[in-house]
Design brief:
- By secondary structure, the chain is α/β, with parallel strands linked by helices.
- It contains 21 helices and 19 strands.
């Protein structure tokens, strides 16, 4: 379809070579010499773009711009001027112009401006398609050759990059190819974890750091202590269920305040709060917590909140490291409490070390299972990312980060585990003591029929507690979830396409940890 362009300039006769050039490129050009005629034409005809001279007799270009925007707020306008005065540029930009050109102009400059305003999405899509086609084979090769944690981190980063690139893309086929590749990557990643997980935990329990990834109990020693040894105040912020793609979706909101350094670490199994977050705050594996601090560990079948002792676990960690700093511990379950923290921020600033746990994304994930409205708002990964950004941008949590930056404090931002969307049910049988999580089961007499389930029959070997000697753990991989045979079809439909955690996937186990350093 031919694009229609309105060109408003009192010296339009001098621009005939430019007009002919654009007409040869397939654009329909309509010209007028003043703002009044331009406003009348915009009211009567459809235009895709307006070139508007700033300095004309009668009403000015800026006045004409305001009138055009009142008629068609979304119509892109390119301001053209001989002046380089900053206040004119500021006024034009404040009126939401699409571009700004300074006379004399080359025809190629005008063509570039048109492409930027009218064809950016099409050009971007073409470049994305070409770029992904070139990258697809490289990612496939990387998946088949991956033999280290670092190589899997690189694969996951590339997949997340392309997921974000395709956000909003109308090419569903290209996105489906990427999602299929991610599915295949997760299947291979699961095999990698099964082969290596027990070795990693054995090395961790022996306090050996070589030949294994950074795991949940390592985070305090590797990231927090070095920051506490500096003169700056330190905030340790844990956002539950916070994935790499969600971090990337809000990263630009931090750029005004912080320099960001991104790493990935590996969550322990199960990728659930009771295990992964308690390991994060204690620097111990769950079986070690149960053994050394039995009063701070709750069994699977106990009704109380499984993460209610985080502050006490952190205090035991500081005692073991002989760190004498006092600290504050704050858990944000609703925005009003964050507002309370903002009001008390001056008091927090007198404390060297502050811990903040934010549960919004975890609550959103669980609400998506039980609430139809929420499940519609977060029906896939792209929607979940968009909802994450909307929440963060308009929450008091964002204001809290701004205050931290103004206070020149360092932030270590991370999570305890991620979450993944499930769509394939696996039947499992167990006794009444088996836990309710859909991605992992712990108990006696577990029975299933799937080769994709990862069983840990000797939990003590991987630092996991058990309720009795014959208990074992079973973990789902990829997009699988466990369902009992009773009322099977109902629960399959109820939980299908919901976000769950506890099992093995890149989304659940490859965890972003970001060091935020305030900009000076």
């Amino acid at each position: 379809m031919q694009n229609h362009i309105l060109w408003v300039d009192d010296e339009v006769d001098l621009l005939k070579p430019h007009i002919m050039f654009l007409q040869q490129k397939g654009y329909d050009i309509v010209t007028v010499t003043n703002g009044h005629d331009a406003i009348t034409l915009v009211q009567q005809q459809r235009f895709d773009l307006v070139f508007l001279d700033e300095n004309m007799p009668g009403i000015t270009g800026l006045e004409t711009l305001q009138a055009i925007k009142e008629i068609h707020p979304s119509l892109p306008v390119v301001m053209v001027t001989k002046s380089e005065e900053e206040n004119i540029m500021d006024q034009a930009i404040g009126s939401k112009i699409a571009d700004y050109l300074i006379k004399p102009m080359l025809p190629s400059q005008m063509l570039m401006s048109i492409k930027k305003c009218l064809h950016a999405n099409e050009i971007t899509h073409q470049q994305q398609t070409t770029g992904f086609q070139q990258e697809f084979g490289k990612i496939a090769d990387s998946i088949s050759e991956a033999n280290s944690f670092e190589s899997w981190c690189n694969i996951y980063k590339k997949i997340v990059h392309w997921e974000l690139e395709f956000t909003g893309s109308r090419d569903r086929d290209l996105l489906q190819i990427l999602l299929t590749q991610k599915y295949e990557a997760n299947a291979t990643f699961s095999k990698f974890v099964r082969r290596n997980y027990e070795t990693w935990i054995t090395l961790l329990l022996k306090q050996q750091k070589q030949n294994r990834p950074t795991l949940s109990p390592d985070i305090f020693g590797k990231y927090i202590i070095p920051q506490l040894e500096t003169e700056k105040q330190v905030f340790f912020v844990v956002i539950d269920n916070f994935r790499l793609d969600q971090w990337r979706s809000i990263q630009t909101l931090f750029s005004q305040w912080f320099d960001c350094h991104e790493d990935l670490y590996c969550s322990i199994l199960p990728t659930a709060t009771q295990y992964a977050r308690n390991a994060l705050f204690s620097a111990l594996m769950p079986a070690q917590i149960e053994q050394q601090y039995p009063n701070l560990w709750l069994e699977e079948n106990e009704e109380n909140c499984k993460n209610q002792h985080e502050a006490e676990l952190l205090q035991t960690l500081l005692n073991r490291y002989r760190i004498n700093y006092s600290f504050t511990y704050n858990k944000i379950n609703e925005d009003s409490y964050c507002n309370h923290l903002l009001a008390q921020f001056g008091t927090m600033c007198r404390t060297k070390f502050n811990v903040i746990v934010i549960n919004f994304l975890d609550m959103l994930s669980h609400a998506g299972t039980d609430n139809k409205v929420v499940s519609e708002l977060a029906h896939d990964e792209a929607a979940f990312r968009a909802l994450t950004r909307t929440w963060f941008e308009h929450s008091n949590v964002y204001k809290l980060f701004c205050q931290i930056a103004k206070n020149n404090s360092t932030v270590i931002l991370t999570t305890d585990h991620g979450t993944t969307r499930v769509d394939n049910a696996i039947k499992i049988i167990g006794d009444k003591t088996v836990n309710n999580n859909l991605r992992y089961k712990m108990g006696k007499n577990l029975n299933w029929q799937s080769k994709n389930v990862f069983e840990i029959s000797h939990p003590k070997n991987v630092g996991l507690p058990t309720t009795n000697l014959s208990s074992s753990y079973a973990f789902c991989s990829g997009r699988d979830f466990f369902v009992y045979p009773n009322n099977y079809n109902h629960y399959v439909q109820y939980y299908k396409n919901t976000f769950q955690h506890g099992g093995i996937s890149m989304e659940e186990m490859l965890i972003p940890i970001i060091t935020l350093t305030p900009k000076q």
